[in-house]
Amino acid sequence: MALRGVLRLGEVCIRVLDMKAARRHYGDRMGLIEVMTDAEGKHYYKAWDEHDHHCIVLREADSAGIDSFAFKVYDDQTLTDLEEKLNAYGIPVERIAAGVYPKSGRRLQFVLPSGHTMHLYAEKEQIGNTLGTSNPGVMPDEGVVRGFRINRIDHVLLGGVNIDENAKLFQEVFEFDMTERLVDADSKQSLALFVSCSTKPHDVAFVLQPEPNRFHHVSFLLDSINDLFHAADLIGKYRIPVDVNTNRHGITRGATIYFFDPSGNRNEVFTGGYVHYPDTPVLTWDTSDLGAASFSQDNTPRESFFNVLT
Amino acid sequence: MALRGVLRLGEVCIRVLDMKAARRHYGDRMGLIEVMTDAEGKHYYKAWDEHDHHCIVLREADSAGIDSFAFKVYDDQTLTDLEEKLNAYGIPVERIAAGVYPKSGRRLQFVLPSGHTMHLYAEKEQIGNTLGTSNPGVMPDEGVVRGFRINRIDHVLLGGVNIDENAKLFQEVFEFDMTERLVDADSKQSLALFVSCSTKPHDVAFVLQPEPNRFHHVSFLLDSINDLFHAADLIGKYRIPVDVNTNRHGITRGATIYFFDPSGNRNEVFTGGYVHYPDTPVLTWDTSDLGAASFSQDNTPRESFFNVLT
Amino acid sequence: MALRGVLRLGEVCIRVLDMKAARRHYGDRMGLIEVMTDAEGKHYYKAWDEHDHHCIVLREADSAGIDSFAFKVYDDQTLTDLEEKLNAYGIPVERIAAGVYPKSGRRLQFVLPSGHTMHLYAEKEQIGNTLGTSNPGVMPDEGVVRGFRINRIDHVLLGGVNIDENAKLFQEVFEFDMTERLVDADSKQSLALFVSCSTKPHDVAFVLQPEPNRFHHVSFLLDSINDLFHAADLIGKYRIPVDVNTNRHGITRGATIYFFDPSGNRNEVFTGGYVHYPDTPVLTWDTSDLGAASFSQDNTPRESFFNVLT
Amino acid sequence: MALRGVLRLGEVCIRVLDMKAARRHYGDRMGLIEVMTDAEGKHYYKAWDEHDHHCIVLREADSAGIDSFAFKVYDDQTLTDLEEKLNAYGIPVERIAAGVYPKSGRRLQFVLPSGHTMHLYAEKEQIGNTLGTSNPGVMPDEGVVRGFRINRIDHVLLGGVNIDENAKLFQEVFEFDMTERLVDADSKQSLALFVSCSTKPHDVAFVLQPEPNRFHHVSFLLDSINDLFHAADLIGKYRIPVDVNTNRHGITRGATIYFFDPSGNRNEVFTGGYVHYPDTPVLTWDTSDLGAASFSQDNTPRESFFNVLT
C-alpha cells in the first residue's frame, strides 16, 4: 500500500521579528519562492519541487519561534477518522473551517503534550512545480531553482516537555514509526525522539526542553552534497550566522548545515540519510556517544543544540 | 501513518546461464554481498544498507530472465488480508509454507496478468547493515561498501501483456499509486506504467510486450551522481556491455545506467528522482516525445528499450 | 619556476551561420557572459572565472568552423623571443599591431602545418571575475555563474593534416609536453596528439584529417561531475543536439559531453582528468582499443569523432 | 612553455612519536600506499595517482614536526642552475649525493629564512600509478584507491619567522608567483603568504610564527566535494581529532578538512580552488576579514590556525 493517513509535513508558521529581513533571508537568499502576502501581512513561501501552494508562512511578531506546524493527510475521511482517534486519545481538537487558512481546506487544530500547536488538513491548492504534467521534462526554467537550491521542506524539530508522550501520540494515533532515540546514558531518559510517516529517517522530531512549545529548527531538503556545499558557500557569502557548518548527523545519517534566520530561528539544509521502512530496526544513541550521535564527522556535541531554541 | 500494507520490492530471482560468470558480475564487480549458497546451487546476495538477508537470488538455467519477484508486506495479517483481496479480485493464490524459500516466512504466490510470478511475504531473517543498532555510527568498515557502491535494490521493470490490468491490480488490490504513464500519442494505448507504494517515483513498472513474463531490468539504488559516474567507470573498466550509459530518465527523473549481466539480463543503477506522494499529479508522457520520456539528456529513444528483454 | 612562456588558450574565433541563434546558444543557454559587440558585428564572450576580457569571439559567416585561435604568453619579451624562434623554425610570422584585435596588445599570427591560423599575444584587458582582489570572498553574486556553470575555456581540438608536424612545432618552439597519443595499431601513424603547457592533460590537441584547417571542438571547464550532469540536463531541456552524452575519455581521463552549436560547431564541457607534469609518462593508445581511448565508460568509439568537423 | 624549473612538492619528511600509530593513520586509515621501510625504520608512502616512488616519509622521533620538505625540479641542469642562484642569493647549499635519500638522485639542501630545511632533486624512481602507459584505462584495480581516496600530495604550510624573506626567495630564485597574502589590517605586516609554481593557488605557503621551523600542515588532494565528505565520514568513524571540519578557505578557494595525526601533526585534505596563472591578480586579505579569509562558509577564524603547530 502506498502512503495513506498522515502524509507529510506541509506547513510551518514561523514568527519573525522583522519581516523585511526575513523576506531577504527566506526569499532572496535561500531562494524559497514567495507566492503570496495575506491581508494580515503574512508572507507565504514554497520550495520549487513542491506542488502545494506553500509550506512556510512568516508572521511578524515580538518574539521569534513557531506558531504552528501542519501535516497534510491523505483525504477528508482521514481527517474525520483522526479527529475521532484524537478525541478517543484524550486530545481536544478544534475544527477550523476551510479558507480560514488561505488556500487550505478545513483543519483540525490541537496542542501536543510538548505544548506545540499542530494542524492537520487534507486539501491545499496545488500550483505545481512549473513542469506541468504532460511530457513535463525534468528541468524547470532557469531562475526557478536558485539560492540554496531547496527542493522541499523536510521536517521540524520541536523542543518541549513530555516528549515521550509526543512520540506515543504520533505512534498510536498517527501511526508513525519511531526511527531513532537519543537517551541519557545513565537514566535512560529520552532526550530526543525521531518519528517517521514515510521512508525518511524522520518527518518530525522532539528534543527535551524544560519549557513547552520551543522551536529548534525547520529543515529543507537539498539534492546532493554538492548542493549542500553550494548552500554553505552562500551562507558564508551572506554572512548568515552559522550554528554548525557542513557535517553529518549520526542520528538520521543526514548531511546538514544549521544556521539562523535574522530573528534567531534555526534553519537546516539537509541531504542524504538512509531509507527507513517499518521493519528497519530502531536505532538508539545515548549520551556516552553524544558527539557521534549529533555530529558524526567530528564527534563533537554542540551545547547550542540543547540550549538555543526560539 | 507510516508505510503499511505492501512495503517494498524485497527479492528478485534471476536466471543466469553461467553461475561463475554471474557471481563475478553481481558479486566481485557490482559489489553485492554474497550471503548464501543453497543446496540447489542458487546464490543469494544483499546490498550493504539493507537489513534483510538477501534481495537477489541467482539460479543457473538454460535461459535468462526472471523466475519471480517478491514484495515484502508489513506483517502476517497483511498477508492474510491480501490473500483474501486477491481471491476476491479473481487472482488464484498459492500458499507456500515458511522455510520453502530460505530465511523467509510463509509466502503467497500468484501470476500477474502480464504473466509474471509474484510473491508476497511478511518475514525474512534480518542480518543488518553491519552498523548495529546502539550508537551505530554512519560508516561501515572499509570493504563493506565496494564495487558499484550499491545501497539497496530499488525496483524492477517487467515486460509483458496486459499491463493496464497489472496496474489496475497494483492500484486496487495493493493500493499502489500510479505515478507516470507512457502512452502512444495516437492510440493512447499504455506502453509503460509506473506504480509506487512509497515516496519513490516507482517501486515496480510494466512495459508493454507482445509476450508475457519478460524481464526488462532490475535496478539498484546509488547515493549520488558521483557514485553513478564511479559505477560507469567500473562498468567501462570491466568491459561490461552497456545498453545506455549515464543519462537521466524523463520518466521518474532518475539518473541511470543500463548494462547487461553476462547472461544478457539488463541491470540498472539509479540515483535521484523526485519525491512522490499520493497527491503528486500523475505525469503522462506520449510517444510524440519518446526521447525525452526515456533519456532526457539527449532526447534519444533507444530501440533496445522495447526490444531487448530476457 | 611558475608557468612562463606560452601560458594558455586565450581566445577562439568561431564562425557561426546565424548570430541570433549563436548568441542564444553561447550566451543565454550555456551562460557565457557577453561582454562586447564590435563594429563588424562580432560578439565577444567570457567565462565567469576568467580575468581577461573575452575568450570566445563569434563571427557570422557562410560556413561554420574556426577562424583562428590564440594563446596568451607571459610577457612581451616572450612574444619577441617566440617570433625569432618561429622564424628560425621556418614558420612565417605576421605582426599584428595592438588594438587590431579589440582589447588586445600586439599579436603574432602564423599558420600551423595543419592549416590552422594561430595567434600569440601577451596583453589583453583584464576585467576580472567580479570578486575583486581585496578580501575578495569566494562566491560571485547570484546570476554571474549560470547556464552550464562554465568556469573557463579549456582547450581546442583541431583537425587537419600534418599533425605530427604540429606536435613537433608545439614541443620544440613552444616547449609544450606531449601527454598522450592515439596511433593506428598497425601502421603506428599518429591519429590524435595531445600537448600541454600546464598541469592539464592537454591545452590543445590535433586529430588527423584529410583536409587542413578543420575544427573539431572547443572545450569549457566545469567544476564537478555534478555540474556536468547539470549541463547535460540543460542540454536536454534545450534540445541541443548531442554528439556524445556524459561519458569519460580514456585519453585525458576527463569527463565529457560533446554537443553542437546551432551552426554545427562541436562544443565540449569537461571536468576532471589527471594532473600532468613534465615527468608524467606519455600515454599511448592505439586503435586496437579505440573505444576505451575515446569513451571509456562504454568502450564504444563514435564515428562522428573522426568524421564530423566544421 | 610547459612547466620547467621547480615542478612540485615531491616529499615531506614528518616526525612522528609512535610509528605504529602513524602507520595506522597514514596507511590503514588515510589510504596512502606504503611502499618501503628503510634500514633506519623510516616508512615511505605514496598517493595512488603519483608516479614517483614516494611523497611522505615518516620518522619516529621524540618530537613531532617536519624534518624537511623537497621540491622536484625539471632536470639535473635545473639543479645546477639553482645551486648557482642560491649561492648568488646568499643561501648556503649543501650537496647530497644520489642514493643518500632512497630512490632519489642527488639533492641540494639548504635552510630557508623561516628556519625550514628544504631539498631540491631532479630524479626519483618512478613506480607509476598501476595503470601503465599503453592503452592504460582510467580506473585502477579495486583496493588501489581506498581510505580517504587521496590522489596526490598537494602542498605544505610552514610556520616560522621571516616569511616575507621566504616569499622573496621563492619568487626571485625559484620564480614562483605570489598568489595570495594575508596581512594585518593595521600594520600591513604579512601574516601568511601563498606562492605557486603551477596553476594551483599554492604549492607552498608560509604563516608567521614567533619561532622558526614550525610545521602547520601537509595537504593532500582529493577529486571532489563528495570525496571530501567521504573523508570526513571516515575521520569521524576513526575518531581522528578534527581541527576544522569540512569548510572552504577564502584564501585559495579550496574546500578543506584539517585534522591531526596521532602525534599532533596537522593534515589537510583539499579539493577545488581556482586556476592560477601568472597574470591572475594577487589577492590580498587582511585581518579585518580574517574569518572569511580562513573559513569562508562560517566566517569564523580559528585560534588554532595561528597557535597549534608542531
UniProtKB/TrEMBL annotation, chains A, B, C, D:
Domain VOC span(s) in chain numbering: 8-123, 152-272
Entry keyword set: Aromatic hydrocarbons catabolism, Dioxygenase, Iron, Metal-binding, Oxidoreductase, Repeat
EC class (word): oxidoreductase
Gene Ontology molecular function: catechol 2,3-dioxygenase activity; ferrous iron binding
InterPro entries: Catechol_2-3_dOase, Glyas_Bleomycin-R_OHBP_Dase, Glyas_Fos-R_dOase_dom, VOC_core, Xdiol_ring_cleave_dOase_1/2, XylE-like_N
Highest taxon listed in the record's lineage: Bacteria
Cofactor(s) needed for function: Fe(2+)
Pfam families: Diox-like_N, Glyoxalase
Catalytic activity line of the entry: catechol + O2 = (2Z,4E)-2-hydroxy-6-oxohexa-2,4-dienoate + H(+)
Keyword Iron: yes
Enzyme Commission number(s) from the entry: 1.13.11.2
SUPFAM superfamilies: Glyoxalase/Bleomycin resistance protein/Dihydroxybiphenyl dioxygenase (SSF54593)
Family, similarity comment: Belongs to the extradiol ring-cleavage dioxygenase family.
Subunit: Homotetramer.
Name the UniProt record assigns to this protein: Metapyrocatechase
Lineage: Bacteria, Pseudomonadati, Pseudomonadota, Betaproteobacteria, Burkholderiales
